[in-house]
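Entry type: protein chain
Record version: 2
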Amino acid sequence: MDLRLTGKRAFVSGSTQGIGFAVARALLDEGAAVVVNGRSADRADAAVRRLRDEVPGADVSAVVADFADAAQVRHLLDDLGEVDVLVNNVGVFELAPFEQITDADWQRYFEVNVMSGVRLSRHLLGGMLARGWGRVIFVSSESGVDVPADMVHYGFTKAGVIALGNGLAKLTRGTDVTVNTILGGPTFSDGVAAAVAQAADAQGTTPEELKSALAAGHRTSLLQRFIEPREIAHLAVYLASPVSSATNGAALRADGGVLTTLT
């Protein structure tokens, strides 16, 4: 299927690795020009080089900003230019007992996971509406619906992302601009892979054995394995495409069946 993304320009926040990188790669495969983002020039430049190696002829560039720093985000917005497809992907996560999550932790999670999407959407959505076409995609999580007890701060911010996408979609009524949210499930991103490797070393097992045990132990998973970042990217690229024109204001699941509700 031709997803008709040639000539479109996309920005993917938090895209030097993991889901963001996979989304950037998939968009480039479909002919879009892509701007990637990382917290440091070294990481961003490395991602650009890798994408150019993997997708010959790719139109890819980078802007650097740490979304925990509002001043850096303002500079990013000044440099970004017009964007047809915005993928709000950047996020942080960790396991933490609720009583040990500090006010500073709560603030950092809100700044990165929620305010990144607020600031980017506020800056870019108006231009999409004026030009008559655009896509805003939020990468949220099933944890925003079924909030984990050991990641309350993370689940709280992901619930906020779902609400943000729902509200912004109502601003696009009667236009060819859409706003949708992806509810990803347990995904074997680079961050998860590093955590699994560290835990496996501490437990005297191999990362692959621990990865399989963790996936099989997820009570409601229908996949019984971790989701790969490219599987989330497939849904993101569909939502970025003109062929998804009838999908707006939706929270679509790519959760491997982890959520047990019908909607």
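Comment: Residues 188-226 form one domain.
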